[in-house]
Design goal:
This protein has 86 residues and is mainly α. The protein is built from three helices and no strands. It is extended and about 50 Å long. It starts with a helix and ends in a 22-residue tail after the last helix.
Length: 86
Protein backbone atom coordinates (compact mmCIF):
# COMPACT_ATOMS: atom_id res chain seq x y z
CA UNK A 1 0.00 0.00 0.00
CA UNK A 2 1.04 3.59 -0.48
CA UNK A 3 1.25 5.99 2.44
CA UNK A 4 -1.94 7.64 1.20
CA UNK A 5 -3.73 4.29 1.21
CA UNK A 6 -2.50 3.51 4.72
CA UNK A 7 -3.69 6.91 5.91
CA UNK A 8 -7.04 6.48 4.21
CA UNK A 9 -7.54 3.06 5.75
CA UNK A 10 -6.15 3.45 9.29
CA UNK A 11 -6.06 7.13 10.23
CA UNK A 12 -9.48 7.36 11.90
CA UNK A 13 -8.86 4.22 13.96
CA UNK A 14 -5.46 5.50 15.12
CA UNK A 15 -6.97 8.93 15.85
CA UNK A 16 -9.61 7.34 18.10
CA UNK A 17 -6.97 5.35 19.97
CA UNK A 18 -4.88 8.47 20.48
CA UNK A 19 -7.89 10.30 21.93
CA UNK A 20 -8.54 7.29 24.23
CA UNK A 21 -4.96 7.50 25.50
CA UNK A 22 -5.30 11.24 26.11
CA UNK A 23 -8.52 10.63 28.06
CA UNK A 24 -6.81 7.90 30.11
CA UNK A 25 -3.97 10.27 31.00
CA UNK A 26 -6.46 13.03 31.88
CA UNK A 27 -8.27 10.65 34.26
CA UNK A 28 -4.95 9.76 35.88
CA UNK A 29 -4.10 13.43 36.32
CA UNK A 30 -7.40 14.04 38.11
CA UNK A 31 -7.19 10.97 40.35
CA UNK A 32 -5.72 11.18 43.86
CA UNK A 33 -2.79 9.02 44.91
CA UNK A 34 0.59 8.14 43.51
CA UNK A 35 1.13 6.27 40.25
CA UNK A 36 2.83 2.90 40.26
CA UNK A 37 5.30 1.23 37.90
CA UNK A 38 2.68 0.78 35.18
CA UNK A 39 2.38 4.50 34.49
CA UNK A 40 6.17 4.88 34.32
CA UNK A 41 6.29 1.97 31.87
CA UNK A 42 3.44 3.47 29.85
CA UNK A 43 5.18 6.84 29.58
CA UNK A 44 8.41 5.12 28.56
CA UNK A 45 6.54 3.14 25.89
CA UNK A 46 4.98 6.35 24.56
CA UNK A 47 8.45 7.78 24.09
CA UNK A 48 9.18 4.86 21.77
CA UNK A 49 6.45 6.19 19.47
CA UNK A 50 8.63 9.20 18.72
CA UNK A 51 11.58 7.17 17.48
CA UNK A 52 12.37 6.89 13.80
CA UNK A 53 12.20 3.64 11.92
CA UNK A 54 9.80 0.86 11.07
CA UNK A 55 9.88 -1.09 14.36
CA UNK A 56 7.97 1.14 16.76
CA UNK A 57 5.44 -1.57 17.67
CA UNK A 58 8.25 -3.96 18.58
CA UNK A 59 10.00 -1.27 20.64
CA UNK A 60 6.80 -0.47 22.54
CA UNK A 61 6.14 -4.14 23.24
CA UNK A 62 9.71 -4.73 24.39
CA UNK A 63 9.63 -1.66 26.64
CA UNK A 64 6.65 -3.19 28.48
CA UNK A 65 8.02 -6.74 28.59
CA UNK A 66 9.87 -8.67 31.27
CA UNK A 67 13.35 -9.44 29.94
CA UNK A 68 14.43 -11.72 32.78
CA UNK A 69 15.29 -15.28 31.85
CA UNK A 70 15.30 -16.98 35.25
CA UNK A 71 11.93 -18.38 36.34
CA UNK A 72 10.43 -17.22 39.63
CA UNK A 73 10.31 -19.78 42.41
CA UNK A 74 6.74 -18.69 43.19
CA UNK A 75 4.36 -16.29 41.48
CA UNK A 76 3.67 -13.15 43.48
CA UNK A 77 0.43 -12.13 41.73
CA UNK A 78 -2.46 -13.97 40.12
CA UNK A 79 -2.48 -12.21 36.78
CA UNK A 80 -0.52 -10.17 34.34
CA UNK A 81 -0.06 -6.47 34.96
CA UNK A 82 0.73 -5.45 31.39
CA UNK A 83 4.07 -3.91 32.28
CA UNK A 84 7.26 -5.10 33.90
CA UNK A 85 8.02 -3.79 37.38
CA UNK A 86 11.61 -2.58 37.18
Amino acid sequence: MTRQQVLDLYFMEARAKLIDIAAFLDRLDRAPGEPDFRLRAFIKAMHELQTEGPNRAEKVLLSLSDHTTEPLAKATVKGATGAYRQ
